[in-house]
Amino acid sequence: MLVVDLDGEPLTPLCALEEILLCLGTWEDDDRQDPRADTEPLRLPAPLADRVALAATQRLLAVLAPTQSRPPGCGRLLAPDGRYEHAPMTALTLPAADIDLLAATAATLGHSRLDPDIAELVDGHVEQLDDTYCRADRTDLVSLLARLAGLLDLSPTDDTRLLTARLQATSPGADCVFSDAEEAAHARTADRMNHIWAHGSGIDRYLY
What we know:
Elements lengths: L1 E3 L6 H23 L18 H13 L12 E2 L5 E3 L2 E3 L4 H14 L6 H10 L12 H15 L5 H12 L6 E2 L2 H18 L8 E2 L1
Parallel strand pairs: 2-5
Antiparallel strand pairs: 1-4, 2-3, 3-6
């Protein structure tokens, strides 16, 4: 699949999710180690239970982090005439199961009947989004996670296959000068990504 460099934006909701899931894992461990007769045992819904969603989130973070906020001049995607640079993309292999788990986690956290204690925990971590997303709440976090899952699950097309083949054939860190066909494929693919992640707002093209 293709991942576009969005200057780290996708990592922010993933990091918030990781902290939420770490807390839920600790709750589970504490409840198992010290069960109380006067309270119901903690029962987390799938895929939050047993750190399943946490493991998937951490795997996604580990793979996606190197693709974001890459330093200038590192593996540029250049127009055919070399005069300007397109938004960087990276060809990756990600487990489909982890993307499905991310989507399922977003749906679970956004459920109207989510346990109030879990909802409160989520609300307490959403403040991490404040620097990038003004007045974020649980709905915003869920939306970002769902949109990220959609971005990572982008259906393959002739355009994505053309770009993937070119990127895989380019040495890591080396510049890639697009052909006319590759540039057109990048533009169409970026437009598809925009509609998922940024609701149609354009991915910048940097002129030189």
